[in-house]
Design brief:
Length: 135
């Protein structure tokens, strides 16, 4: 297996609401896609939004679940101020602030929000190195 993630697909409860959050609220560029799914281009991969029930059915697993899903999505930025600004942008677009931006144990600065479907995003500044592809 090659070391890459081609696409991250999130199961969502309300596709239209989630599309508005990611497209209008966060400014992700949306690709043309069928009406039952939405695709966004990321720097090096894609983000897909698909109905939670349909995604679970496709994977042949239960759609029931709550609490922590055992993963987070992370977005790194170049400064502490950018962390705070992006958290504020997400909240104004409909996200729930989970943890405000703050100094963290490993020497960086980060905070967390949940998107409208409860997917957990970390917004982080790592002063020691850049993580991910350059914009």
């Amino acid at each position: 297996m090659k070391p890459r993630i081609s696409m991250i697909t999130l199961g969502v409860g309300d596709l239209e609401k989630s599309v508005r959050f990611y497209e209008e609220g966060l400014g992700f560029p949306r690709m043309e896609s069928p009406p039952t799914v939405a695709f966004f281009t990321l720097n090096g991969s894609w983000l897909g939004l698909y109905g939670r029930e349909a995604l679970a059915e496709d994977a042949q697993v239960s759609a029931q679940g709550s609490g922590f899903n055992s993963f987070t999505l992370a977005h790194n930025v170049e400064s502490e101020a950018e962390v705070d600004a992006l958290l504020a942008q997400a909240v104004s677009a409909g996200a729930t602030l989970v943890k405000p931006g703050q100094k963290v144990f490993w020497g960086g600065y980060s905070g967390y929000f949940k998107d409208p479907d409860g997917h957990l995003w970390e917004i982080a500044h790592n002063p020691f190195c850049w993580i991910g592809p350059r914009d």
